[in-house]
Amino acid sequence: MSFAEFFANYGLILLLVVLLVFMFWSSRRRMQKQKLEQEERARQTVPGAEVLLQGGLYGTIVSYDPENLDQPAIVEIAPGVDIKVHSQAILRIVSGTDADTVAEPLAADEIAADDAGPIEPDTDADRKPNV
Questions:
Q1: Contact call for residues 50 and 94 (beta carbons, < 8 A)
Q2: Fewer Cβ close by (within 10 Å): the C or N end of the chain?
Q3: pLDDT digit string (tens) for 66-91?
């Protein structure tokens, strides 16, 4: 049996077996990578850590149990405002630079110099009656 005959008879089967082995290998590799990322996130998720939730909210972890992921995590999104979220709703731990750029409001000296000055409050004399 020559190589051409062997490949003509069994080539498709060999190709499918190689594809199946590749898919199994890549799936296993991806699962191991996700497991390592989840373990790293659980190590960094401690009370006091700044986090980004899946809904786009930033907050600080008040309580979190990495052993029991069914127990909700308590996250403070504003001073005195604590919310319960599913522990897997924590998308990522925010570094100090990301939290500073998001949480800090714009300072008065950063406002553009071409502003005309302070805004004058409206008075009743400035308003026109609705007719």
A1: yes
A2: C
A3: 888 788 999 999 999 999 999 888 88
